[in-house]
Design a protein that fits this description.
The protein has about 100 residues and is of the alpha+beta class. About 50% of the residues lie in helices and about 20% in strands. The protein has a 3-stranded mixed beta sheet with strand order 1-2-3.
């Protein structure tokens, strides 16, 4: 391949115009991988979306919402360490 050509991967990772697309993909990865990171939450919580680096999680009831709110920093840290970068800065819970 000639020197001045870039691979699609390189273009995707470096092109400034694709930043929003990269962010959308990273956000959807958090939702897709949520149960890989937290298999014990499968019957309790449903990840819904990531918006402005806040993960929205729907929980079964108020008791679980309180418990997960208490563990919020632990959850955020575990997600970010799974990806080796800061993808989530907080969590919003709903019933």
């Amino acid at each position: 391949m000639p020197e001045h050509f870039k691979s699609l991967e390189e273009v995707f990772k470096t092109e400034p115009g694709l930043r929003k697309l990269r962010d959308i993909i990273k956000s959807s990865d958090v939702i897709i991988d949520f149960y890989k990171i937290f298999p014990d939450l499968k019957n309790i919580a449903i990840p819904q979306k990531v918006m402005k680096r806040f993960l929205k999680i729907k929980v079964e009831n108020a008791a679980w919402r309180s418990e997960l709110k208490f563990r919020e920093k632990e959850i955020v840290d575990k997600i970010n360490s799974y990806y080796n970068e800061d993808r989530v800065k907080g969590i919003k819970f709903s019933n």
